[in-house]
Amino acid sequence: MVSIVKNFRGSAFKVFLLLLLSFFAESIAFACGWYPEAETYRFVLFNPQLANRRYEPFYFTSYFLYDYENLENREISNRRNIDEWIKYTQFKGSHQAVDYILNYVTPEDFTENMALPQEKMFAGNPFIEHLIRTKNQETLQYLQFAKNCEVVNSIYNEDPWSRQKTNDTKEYQELISSGEKFYSQTKQPFLQFRYGFQLVRLARYMGDYTLGKQLYKKYIEPYPSQSIVYYWAMWHYAEMHEDKAYQNYLVSQVFDNAHDKKIVAWQFFNRSHTQESLKYAKTNHEKATILVMNELHNPGRSLSAIKRIYTIDPTSDVMETLLIREINKLEDWILTPRYTEFDPAVNYRNQNLYDYTPKERNEYTLKNYKKDMIYLAEVLSFIEHTPTKKIHNPALWNVMAGYLAYMNNQFDKSSNYLHQTLRAKGLTKRIEAQAHLIRIMAELNPKQPTQQTDATLLAELEWLEKNKTELYHYKGSFSRLMMALTNRYWDAGDIVRASLCHSKIFDFVRFESNFFSEKDSISYEYDTRAPGMNTEGMNFYSSYLFFLDQKATPPDIEKLLSFLDKNLKSKLESYLAKDLLKEKDRITDLLGIKYLREDKLYQARDAFKKVSKEFWLSDNESYKAYLKANPFYTNFYQVDSSSSTHTSSFTKFSLTDSLIHIIERAENLKEPNRAKWYFLAANCYLNMSYWGNSWIMTRHWWSRNEVSDYSYAEHPYSTYPDNANYYGCERAMNFYLKAQGFAKDKSQKALCLRMAGRCKFYSLLYTNQFYETIYDYKKGREVKNPYYTTNRYYEQLQRQYPEFYDELMFQCTSFDTYYTSLLLPETP
């Protein structure tokens, strides 16, 4: 047995809390303040990119936009502009030559090159050479004018330290005057149109909206065109218009016809004026576009609007995008809570659930779940009853129906739609991959697996891995698939396969909610346990280990370990178990932890004994660092830290084994000094608590944030069964009281009461009984604590042993004297 006598230096009991805080400051806190973004836990398996990629920025997401750069749409509009230039100039060269002049040559470089001899201009750019060769001077003049406009319109031409533009009105006015002059001189409609665009833009950036609208009506509006420049000019006109409803109409036209402006047009669209805007629409397609923009802003249910859009514009190219948005919404509303236990990532109802009790929150969730399932059936019905002849891509509509049927627990119907998908017109590799992904979930029978179903599941998983480039964010999709399978197997009672599937998750998080539990994947039942944080100091986790810690019992883990030790595994089992086979030491350690939390010391020792010594000493684990201190020593105020001069390191096995031997001696009726052994056992239990040096025996992490003024019992950092011991030191307190009962003299009994009082102090903190007043956040002030209780062991110490009270309570160094007396004869 290691020496358990330590020296402790201090001054008074009054500095206890200060010393305690000092201890916290020196300890490593594993829990950090990071919390996963909603998009990281939003459950999405249906690939939004199966829809029209031109609407990619507006796919359903918890972010402001799905895609902020919109590069593909920008390239489409840029290519339209270049095509117009090539047609006008009859240039036979490459798009790149035109693109370089229009978009990459700076105004300064353009001016400098125009002053060079013709053979040196723009390093022999073929487009410029063509303009020179064809003596197209007025086009070169327009290009120079456009580059001059870039100078005053550029955001880079502003003083970052000033609120005013560095360009004064005079510069704009001079350019507008020159532009109108050039407009009147040219007879080319192509150039006139572009001069008109430049004039409108100059007036807008100058801030003269009245002039800008006049110029638009004079040079642009009378000449409607399919030119991209027409819609670029319309965008500037829309921003200057004071009629909000008409603005909506204009930006809807820009949205529909200028793909590079889709994002800014969407941002500018005002939903509150949608109905008023419809009166300006000249065709059903224009009406549909306004309605589409309204729904692309809508995080809630859009089916009624989708039906309206379909009625007036059944061939709309955005119909499939809108339907996939609804599918992705339904995934979030139904599957995010079902499979991750987080609330939906997008709270479109704007309901604050933080003040809800667990029961209220569960009732609210169940109510919305039922409504969402009814809505899901409505969306599925619309897809099913849409005439095939009006569908752009039958394969996509079949796979949408198949997924919704799966979500509606209509597995046979889902399988039928998915088989139709693979034979339907419009099938692509991505749609095929989506169908395979859904088939795995729809055709899985977790309650009655057979060799045939296992072989089919393995074949599908291998197919997905082989075709991973066709899947939407493969790692994320595969992880969400494994999360779904985890839940399906867990609900079927197959703990082993649920654990195997969870170990295949790459980068997905799960909430540690105990608000509700799922039955048969379709209903929730209230769970009376409070929500807890059992893993990394946060209420979420991603590791299979924390999944097991949260969900599994010791018998469950023993069953998993027996499976891993089994030599004969099916091909599917071997595929799923590949990663966990390397984790047997860690899983066995968890088994010991769970037994230790239940104070089943012999079972815990047996589990820890099976863990390899290499695991305990590995640099990848924390045990080597956090089991250095003496677990059988503590004093009035502080504990040993990992930096202790104590040279003997423990493993979980050796510590548990030592504790068992100590307790056996304490309970031996023939033992002459039972008080000593009970005291040592109490020290160990105290050190295995949150307040001790060996907390890692039963926890994965430690954080100073666990210490708070509010009740641990009402707002726990975990829902482990030993919280009263871990935070409240109840086991340690009971052993100190047993030691008191066997102590030989009053001084020893007084010491035992003093240490029981220390444990009681933590217990009062844990149960919110320590502070006489507490802060009431609703009232905004301190109020009397109805749970306040005094420390009865300190009171008992003062009442029964007054001659030792002051020394034990206020003289820190007195511990050594009393402790040494209790231990004699010296511990072997």
From TrEMBL:
Protein name: Uncharacterized protein
